[in-house]
Amino acid sequence: MVATETPIPVTSFAVQVRELSKWFGNFQVLNRIDLDISVGEKVVICGPSGSGKSTLIRCINQLEPFESGRLHVHGVEMSDARKNVQMVKQQIGMVFQHFNLFPHLSVMENCVLGPMTVRGLSRRQAEDIADHYLARVRISEQAFKYPGQLSGGQQQRVAIARALCMEPKILLFDEPTSALDPEMVKEILDTMTDLARDGITMICVTHEMGFARQVADRVIFMDKGQIVEVNRPDVFFKLQSNERTRQFLANLVR
């Protein structure tokens, strides 16, 4: 009998995490995390440096292995070695703090590389998709420049377009504005706010609380490798149940 690939199950959850733990040497950076994120949900994760928030989304994207627990993305267990896990990984886009563009490639080349090499699209197909998403983030005119010729804000918009060119179902943001000059932050947040209207699942590690208030369905506060508090923005910013959350917001929210 010829083995067939197991179809990706239909589920209302984009991400399900159960008792996820992760160590760096003797330091436990994630401590038995439990989290469900629905399809189409917009989630902001905040917390102090070293709280595990970036590590959590890197585990979701399988950029970091984890030692124990279970992780499902669209119903597929990501520790499974079957081919459909690779298909699911292709449906997760990532936008990094420091852009991670290839400096020797033009904006267009950065955007078409993934669709051509991973998705197997033709050059023409990949360029059509890139044209669409570069226009979507309002940077079409820079398509044939190199990253070094662009401002930080422009580079981050290219990075967002590059992630979108893979047409992901989940988009992860790892502190996308923290490496930018203050005057460039707004243009990235405006771009992210615009994307949030499209219905894509978004998980954003950020300290931009204005963005969290405006866009997030839920805000998650992490501390010492654990999820300390989760709530809707209207409740999270008015009525914190945890003293550590209150301390964090008191130092952050102006």
UniProtKB/TrEMBL annotation:
<dbReference type="InterPro" id="IPR003593">
    <property type="entry name" value="AAA+_ATPase"/>
</dbReference>
<comment type="similarity">
    <text>Belongs to the ABC transporter superfamily.</text>
</comment>
<keyword id="KW-0472">Membrane</keyword>
<dbReference type="GO" id="GO:0005524">
    <property type="term" value="F:ATP binding"/>
</dbReference>
<protein>
    <recommendedName>
        <fullName>ABC transporter domain-containing protein</fullName>
    </recommendedName>
</protein>
<dbReference type="InterPro" id="IPR050086">
    <property type="entry name" value="MetN_ABC_transporter-like"/>
</dbReference>
<dbReference type="Pfam" id="PF00005">
    <property type="entry name" value="ABC_tran"/>
</dbReference>
<keyword id="KW-0547">Nucleotide-binding</keyword>
<dbReference type="InterPro" id="IPR017871">
    <property type="entry name" value="ABC_transporter-like_CS"/>
</dbReference>
<keyword id="KW-1003">Cell membrane</keyword>
<dbReference type="GO" id="GO:0016887">
    <property type="term" value="F:ATP hydrolysis activity"/>
</dbReference>
<keyword id="KW-0067">ATP-binding</keyword>
<dbReference type="GO" id="GO:0015424">
    <property type="term" value="F:ABC-type amino acid transporter activity"/>
</dbReference>
<feature type="domain" description="ABC transporter">
    <location>
        <begin position="15"/>
        <end position="249"/>
    </location>
</feature>
<keyword id="KW-0997">Cell inner membrane</keyword>
<dbReference type="GO" id="GO:0005886">
    <property type="term" value="C:plasma membrane"/>
</dbReference>
<dbReference type="InterPro" id="IPR027417">
    <property type="entry name" value="P-loop_NTPase"/>
</dbReference>
<keyword id="KW-0813">Transport</keyword>
<dbReference type="InterPro" id="IPR030679">
    <property type="entry name" value="ABC_ATPase_HisP-typ"/>
</dbReference>
<dbReference type="InterPro" id="IPR003439">
    <property type="entry name" value="ABC_transporter-like_ATP-bd"/>
</dbReference>
